[in-house]
C-alpha cells in the first residue's frame, strides 16, 4: 500500500506542477506523513523534490530568465535557510496533546499543526475562483522570493507564492516554468543543507535501514515520469476537476495531520 500511495502521488503531482498551483511537495508530503513522522516526511520530500527539480531543469531550464532567477531566487535561498532553521526548532518541541482515537494513539505536536495549517491554507487558496489570476507587480519579486523561500524552508510550500510573484514578470509559459524550476532548485539546496545539520542524517539512516529507501527511489522515479509527461503537456489546459479533487483530499489530510491522527 505504501508504494502505491507514495509513487502514484509523486507521479501525478510531478505532472501537475507544470500547469497547476499544486506542487510536488504539497502533495507528496501528506502522502509520506501517512507512513513516517512529520520531520522525516519533510526531509524525504525535500530529497525527492530536489532530484525531480534537477530533472525538470534539464527539460525546461533553457527557458529560465537569469535576471528573474537572481532577483527572486537569491532572496528565496537566504530566507529558505531561516525557514529550515525554524523547522528544526519546531521538531524539537514536545507534543501539545495526546489522546486515543479508536484504540490508536494520536499526538498533536507544534510541527504537525504548522505543516497542517500550511497545507490547508494553500489547498483552499488553490480552489478559490480566480485565485490563479492573482499576481503582484514585478517590483515585488524580491519580496516574493523572501516569502516563498521562507515557507519553502519551513514546509516545502514554495510553489504557490512563487507563482503569484512571477506570473506578471512577462516570462511566457515556458519561461515561467523554467524560471520557477531554477528558483525552486536553489531553495531545495538551501533547505537540505540546513536539514543536514540536524535531523536529515538520522532520518535518512532510519529510512535506509527499513523499506523506506525503496519507497523514496520509487517516488523519485515516478516523479521523473510525471515530469517528463507534464513537460510534453505544458501547453494543455489545467485539469480543473482533478485539481478540485486533489484540493479536497489535501484539506482532509491537513485536518487529520493537525489532529495528530497521522
Q: Can you tell me the residue ranges where pLDDT is under 50 for at least 5 consecutive residues?
A: none
Residue share in helix: over 70%
Question: How many H/I helical runs?
Answer: 11
Order of helices and strands: HHHHEEHHHHHHH
Distance between the termini: 16 Å
Strand tally is 2
- The count of domains is 1
Mean pLDDT: 79
Widest β-sheet, arrangement of strands: 1-2
Shape: globular
Major β-sheet profile: 2 strands, antiparallel
Query: Strand content of the residues, in percent?
Result: under 5%
**Which class do the helix and strand fractions yield?**
mainly alpha
Radius of gyration: 17 Å
Describe the fold and architecture.
This protein is mainly α and 262 residues long. The protein has one domain. It contains 11 helices and 2 strands, in the order ααααββααααααα. Helix 6 (141-155) packs antiparallel against helix 7 (159-166). The model has no long low-confidence stretch (mean pLDDT 79).
Features:
262 residues, mainly alpha, 73% helix
Quick synopsis:
The protein has 262 residues and is mainly alpha-helical. 73% of the residues lie in helices and 4% in strands. It contains 11 helices and 2 strands, in the order ααααββααααααα.
Detail the topology: elements first, then pairings:
Layout: H1 2-16, H2 24-33, H3 38-60, H4 66-92, E1 97-101, E2 104-108, H5 110-127, H6 141-155, H7 159-166, H8 172-196, H9 199-209, H10 212-232, H11 240-258
Antiparallel strand pairs: 1-2
Helix pairs in contact: 1-2, 1-10, 2-3, 2-11, 3-8, 3-9, 3-10, 4-6, 4-8, 5-11, 6-7, 6-8
Amino acid at each position: 500500500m505504501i508504494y502505491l500511495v507514495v509513487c502514484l502521488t509523486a507521479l501525478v503531482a510531478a505532472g501537475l506542477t507544470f500547469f497547476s498551483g499544486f506542487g510536488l511537495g504539497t502533495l507528496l508530503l501528506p502522502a509520506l506523513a501517512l507512513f513516517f513522522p512529520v520531520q522525516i516526511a519533510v526531509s524525504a520530500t525535500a530529497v525527492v523534490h530536489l532530484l525531480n527539480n534537477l530533472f525538470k531543469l534539464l527539460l525546461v531550464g533553457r527557458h529560465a530568465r537569469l535576471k528573474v532567477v537572481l532577483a527572486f531566487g537569491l532572496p528565496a535561498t537566504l530566507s529558505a535557510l531561516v525557514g529550515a532553521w525554524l523547522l528544526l526548532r519546531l521538531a524539537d518541541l514536545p507534543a501539545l496533546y495526546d489522546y486515543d482515537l479508536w484504540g490508536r494513539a494520536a499526538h498533536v505536536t507544534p510541527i504537525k499543526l504548522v505543516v497542517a495549517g500550511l497545507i490547508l491554507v494553500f489547498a483552499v487558496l488553490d480552489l478559490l475562483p480566480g485565485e490563479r489570476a492573482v499576481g503582484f507587480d514585478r517590483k515585488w519579486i524580491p519580496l516574493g522570493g523572501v516569502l516563498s523561500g521562507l515557507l519553502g524552508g519551513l514546509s516545502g510550500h514554495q510553489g504557490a507564492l512563487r507563482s503569484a510573484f512571477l506570473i506578471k514578470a512577462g516570462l511566457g509559459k515556458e519561461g515561467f516554468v523554467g524560471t520557477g524550476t531554477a528558483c525552486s532548485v536553489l531553495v531545495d539546496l538551501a533547505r537540505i543543507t540546513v536539514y543536514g545539520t540536524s535531523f536529515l542524517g538520522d532520518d535518512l539512516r532510519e529510512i535506509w535501514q527499513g523499506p523506506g529507501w525503496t519507497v523514496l527511489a520509487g517516488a523519485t522515479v515516478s516523479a521523473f515520469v510525471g515530469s517528463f509527461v507534464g513537460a510534453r503537456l505544458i501547453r494543455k489546459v489545467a485539469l480543473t476537476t482533478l485539481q478540485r479533487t486533489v484540493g479536497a483530499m489535501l484539506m482532509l489530510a491537513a485536518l487529520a495531520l493537525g489532529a495528530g491522527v497521522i
